[in-house]
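TASK: fixed-backbone design
INPUT:
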């Protein structure tokens, strides 16, 4: 029997061409949903104009129709990475979403969320529309906010966000957790909820690039090893706490290129200047094709999370593209991410976050050569992950109330 058409609302704060993990996750998933939905279905994506980095401007039409998807982009005021600015920006987004959906009906609301509020917005809309709700949770915001804010502020706001989390998760018909490291936290608080674990994965661009990788011999005679980090420069990554000292210690045999932007970029710049470090190059965010070229030029790929208990549960999306490209991976991570890198990625070295001495020992243990990882790519191809996840989303929407 043919499935009935579904009216799907897809909420994501970030969407292509924004340069961030949320965009890279949401865009191909929406496209896969459009491919497998029952005939006659509709998908409305409500997102924002690209805004992840002020230094990367890629304006888009307010309304687009492509691949069976209607994309509605809400313009935001210019904002920085601070909580107040981000809260104002989300308020504009939420207001725009509510206005856009006011006269429309949906069978299913899907919301992908790292800072919790998009999940809460999805729960609110689903309740008003009497629609099914599927949440995709990319971070434990309540955990994180309790560590990154001053204790006096965290004490005030954490109960509010805990209540918001409870409202959103309890309202969902299904919740996906992007990291299996989140399982204990969420199952302990919501024992009756049904959870899935569709992680991030290797995007098609990186799968294609991986086919060109061949095993290489370790290069012992290089004048300088080129280390690349690409991504956000915020509290969560803590690069300002380790890169300046690390670069100073490893000069001149190692040079760093840091690609990205974020709330701690100025602190990173200031610490590099204070130490007189000259072997670190800071580059603005790049689009995917430029970034792939930078990856190919690098000898080692660097990833780092700050030394906070909340980050012991996360799995950075960056490790998937790093691993696919066959470069040595140098990872300052702990907890679930550390175990994942050790067990899943060949020629990778892990060290405790913010520990310069351990980082140097880990670096020295790397084999400076390209290592194809076809097994990893086959296991974590985002195409396969999205196919399974899209079918589960549709099953939730099609289930009888």
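OUTPUT:
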């Amino acid at each position: 029997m043919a499935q009935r058409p579904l009216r799907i609302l897809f909420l994501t704060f970030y969407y292509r061409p924004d340069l961030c993990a949320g965009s890279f996750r949401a865009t191909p998933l929406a496209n896969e949903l459009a491919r497998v939905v029952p005939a006659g279905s509709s998908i409305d994506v409500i997102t924002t104009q690209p805004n992840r980095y002020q230094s990367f401007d890629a304006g888009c039409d307010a309304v687009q129709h492509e691949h069976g998807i209607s994309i509605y982009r809400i313009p935001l005021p210019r904002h920085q990475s601070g909580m107040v600015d981000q809260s104002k920006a989300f308020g504009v987004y939420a207001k725009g979403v509510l206005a856009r959906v006011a006269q429309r009906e949906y069978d299913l609301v899907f919301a992908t969320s790292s800072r919790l509020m998009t999940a809460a917005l999805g729960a609110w809309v689903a309740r008003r529309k009497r629609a099914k709700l599927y949440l995709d949770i990319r971070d434990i915001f309540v955990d994180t906010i309790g560590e990154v804010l001053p204790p006096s502020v965290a004490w005030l706001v954490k109960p509010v966000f805990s209540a918001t989390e409870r409202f959103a998760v309890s309202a969902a018909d299904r919740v996906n957790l992007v990291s299996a490291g989140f399982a204990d936290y969420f199952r302990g608080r919501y024992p009756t909820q049904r959870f899935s674990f569709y992680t991030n994965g290797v995007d098609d661009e990186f799968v294609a690039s991986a086919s060109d990788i061949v095993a290489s011999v370790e290069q012992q005679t290089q004048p300088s090893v080129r280390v690349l980090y690409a991504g956000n420069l915020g509290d969560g990554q803590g690069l300002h706490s380790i890169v300046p000292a690390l670069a100073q210690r490893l000069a001149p045999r190692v040079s760093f290129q840091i690609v990205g932007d974020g709330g701690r970029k100025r602190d990173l710049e200031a610490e590099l200047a204070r130490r007189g470090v000259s072997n670190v190059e800071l580059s603005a965010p790049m689009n995917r094709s430029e970034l792939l070229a930078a990856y190919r030029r690098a000898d080692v790929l660097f990833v780092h999370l700050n030394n906070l208990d909340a980050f012991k549960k996360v799995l950075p999306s960056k490790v998937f593209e790093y691993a696919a490209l066959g470069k040595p991976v140098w990872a300052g991570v702990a907890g679930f991410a550390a175990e994942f890198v050790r067990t899943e990625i060949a020629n990778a070295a892990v060290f405790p976050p913010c520990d310069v001495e351990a980082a140097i020992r880990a670096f020295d243990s790397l084999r400076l050569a390209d290592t194809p990882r076809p097994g990893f790519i086959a296991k974590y191809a985002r195409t396969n992950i999205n196919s399974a996840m899209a079918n589960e989303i549709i099953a939730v929407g099609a289930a009888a109330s």
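COMMENT: The mean pLDDT is 91.
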